[in-house]
Amino acid sequence: MGKLQAFDIAFDNNKVVYSPGESITGTVTVKLAQALQCKAVKVSCNGFCGITSKVNDTTWTMEEQYFNSTISVADKGTVKQGEHTFPFKFLIPATAPTSFEGNYGRIIYRVRAFIDTPRFSKDYSTEKPFYMLSLLNLNELPDIWGPCSSAVTQQFTYMLMKTGTVVLKARTDLKGYTPGQVIQVTANIHNQSGKTTGNMAASLMQRVTYETKKPTHDVKTIAEVEGGVVKAGKEVEWKEQIIVPALPQSALTGCDLIKIDYYIKVSLKSPDVTLTLPIHIGNISLDKKQQPSKKAAPLSTEDTPDTPATTPDASATTTTPTLPPRPAPKPAPRPAPRSRTSFHNSPSAPPAEYHPGAEGGTQVNDDFPNKRQSQLVSPNAFSYAPGLFFSQSQQQNGPSPVPTGPPFTGSAGATGLYPPLNNASSAPLILPPNYDTSAYPHEAPPSYDESCNT
């Protein structure tokens, strides 16, 4: 081994993982078989990032340095035979990013020792790496609370023919996780076509971006789970779990050359439909105690009505100041009434996302917005027809407030029949006279206005 028998670096307490702002201390051990002339014995501590465009290449095309400190532990002279120990201590900057090793770049921290010898003599060097961990607190990230959800619609093409669409919705229970936690993935697939889909799958993906002159993206699948198929015209809700393994954190704060992103990819193999749900991987998990509470805002003076509605008359006379008064619609001419006068609400239109060709399927999960809903239509929603009669139980329960404006306004609260005036719930409804006893009436039937004012 020549003159130098041992040249080692040791960290105090055998510590190898440090945090920004800490001090790193240790010793350099030199064991010589005979005396050695030297200019100096130096120890340095540095951290830097290097990236390249070739896989596992250490010839960096771009670099950035975080710190580089050097101290001299022995001056010029002769190092005697035997074993010598030199202590060192360095302060790590608080802005140092977390260590990282990828296919196209690395963030490296190391302590190096040199024995600088005179000219034409052999120099000696050694180094020992250590790891930096800058904790990422998920609670400090913006917009981290609540689930992450997304939706996509894809045309289903079979044999160059469009057979329908497939609607895929998915969400995760959280937006941030730590290694060891479980990601709850819920997917809703509505197959509105005539063909069965391929298998569904959910994957935990990692994308590392290296900021070279032309950015390099390294995408890999960390974990994947697979589900079944969805038959034609069916709707399925699929729930799965993914355990987060030991992974680098999402944010390499302080590094401008390497970016790390994580996301959940939910996909179908046929048709080729995919959506992504971005998530964060950190070191300190979310604490529900730190979640900002959503308190109901107190009512302002503008929202508070001036006169409380304590009686039916008061509630009937209260009007909204922001809406202009509606003019009373002109009554359309109609023949002499043959039965009870009927007024109705126009039925509302079906939901915008209703597709007539999509029949069957399971019930949609309530957690997803814009689900299809069936609408109940009241019998009073149909137009008046002679001989059509609905029992009193189908109209409304309880007495109706006394109308003070036009009897039919087209609003959602309009009743089916005119209620009797003076708010008499037990009074019979006013019916037109019966002219079935003779071929012709002895006197003219009452007019429309007379019937209403009786």
TrEMBL record:
It holds the Pfam family Arrestin_N. The lineage of its organism: Eukaryota, Metazoa, Chordata, Craniata, Vertebrata. GO terms for biological process: nervous system development; protein transport. Residues 322-336 have a biased composition (Pro residues). It comes from the Eukaryota. Coiled coil: none annotated. Residues 162-286 form the Arrestin C-terminal-like domain. Residues 287-373, 391-454 are annotated as: Disordered. GO terms for molecular function: ubiquitin protein ligase binding; ubiquitin-like ligase-substrate adaptor activity. Belongs to the arrestin family. One of its GO terms (cellular component) is cytoplasm. Residues 300-321 have a biased composition (Low complexity). InterPro entries: Arrestin-like_C, Arrestin-like_N, Arrestin_C-like, Arrestin_domain-protein, Ig_E-set. This is Arrestin domain-containing protein 1a.
